[in-house]
Fold this protein.
Amino acid sequence: MIRKAIDFALANPLLVLGGALVLFVWGIISFHALPIEAYPDVADTYAQVITQWPGHAAEEVEQQITVPLEVELNGVAHLTHLRSVSLMGLSVITIIYDDDITTFNARQEVLDRLQNVTLPTGVSAGIGPDYSPIGQIMFYTLTSTNPKYDVMELKALNDWFVVNQLKSVPNIVDVNPFGGPTRQYQVQLDPNKLVSYGLALPLVEQALIANNINAGGGFIERGQQALNVRAVGLMQSTDDIGATVVKVQNGTPVRVRDLGIVVQAPKVRLGQLGKTIRNKDGTILNDDDVVEGIVLLRKGAVAETTLDALHQKI
């Protein structure tokens, strides 16, 4: 067999040379078209079930959330490992599969099984984003030289604008924001005024909830037209909150502003993010309170093209 191949090559040198040249050109083209990953994704197919139950101890979370979820999820197809962590107010279950199942099918079966689990009132389990452990492709921080944008304003800008814009880039599965104080509308009541007006805290809460709502009122016919009627009651500012009527006493309305003050203030923080920059000349710049975001790449997507699209969006 080898002798025949050698005889053919010697008898047809131009044909063999042409075939070798074609293979050489094809190899160069294939080499340039070959996808190259600096950190290839070798992670197993997995899904995470994340459940929050604020204010409850790890033992209660384990008994009433983690165990029922584990019992239901133990029978999923192609399961190799099931791990769980129960913390204060948080349950995280990680399901690891073999290589014979796609991420889409794995996540779909988990979502179907979550519908069969009975959890405490007001608690719902959700599935984590579809990203690889090496899918954190970009870290960014927001800064501004304009004194109008303090850290709390940058936090609101990041949560309501920047995150939504970055998530619109193809193959970006999620953006995790970190750092900065979260803006809150706070009603700071005076206990002495509550006592003087004969009010309790639940009555003030009910008044605020009942007055912060839009409602439909049907329609009014005008000739051949129908005009929709709606009551706009959503609060837009601290003045709207302060003007909320809690009760009427001797014909005089008692409003929230009569019981205390309404302010925009930061939510109670459980942590703080800082940033340190070390320059080449040896100087160190410290910023002990910054706003950051981590961009997550969809599992199986190409990082290079996604990063190019991210840079264009930014």
